[in-house]
Design brief:
Largest sheet: 4 strands, antiparallel
CATH architecture: 3-Layer(aba) Sandwich
Strand content: 15-25%
Order of helices and strands: HHHEHHEHEHEH
Helix content: 25-40%
CATH superfamily: NADH Oxidase
CATH class: Alpha Beta
Distance between the termini: 50 Å
Radius of gyration: 18 Å
CATH topology: NADH Oxidase
Structural class: alpha+beta
Amino acid sequence: MIITTEEDQIRLGNIADTEYEIYALLKQRYSPRIFREEKLKSGHIRQLFEAARWAASSFNRQPWRFIYAEKGSEAYDKMVDCLSDFNKSWAVNAPFLLLTAYKEKTEDGKENFHALHDLGLSLGNMTTQAQYLDIALHHMAGIDWEKAQKVFNVPEGYHISTAIAIGYYGGNMEDLSEDLQESELAERTRMPQKDFAFKGEWKH
């Protein structure tokens, strides 16, 4: 009989139940709120940023920017302080925090309408590379971006967008409140394709 750990059971339970077969790393990816108590290897950090570096972007402008910090540093504590109260309650479990930002203007001073799209592409690359390395990313919208802009001296023309908690998969469920433990074990759901992919014309 094969005995699996609680971590194995959580990982297996979070594999996406897709309607159609997709790349295995995409099926395995999920956003935990617990992580192993282990620093990210420096080589792995560089691989994550290299994956982001090679993302597609409009006119190859590469408008993404990142600020990162390791747990135990002053910068890490400052990042936590910029998070929403809800995210503060669990993000401190992550050994590595990341702020994402984008450049608002093009080189000729016009609004870069596609900058957020390009930032998203870079983070998609990073997320898939992370999954390959057994690293989990939990993207967070709950951040006081105006405060983060001031705290981290973000220059004019750049805009903080999100924060990301990063660490190797694993960790102790007991580090979470009962509500968050339930959320961690809840069934993953997605809207069906028919609700977002329309052939020929927009369907309501």
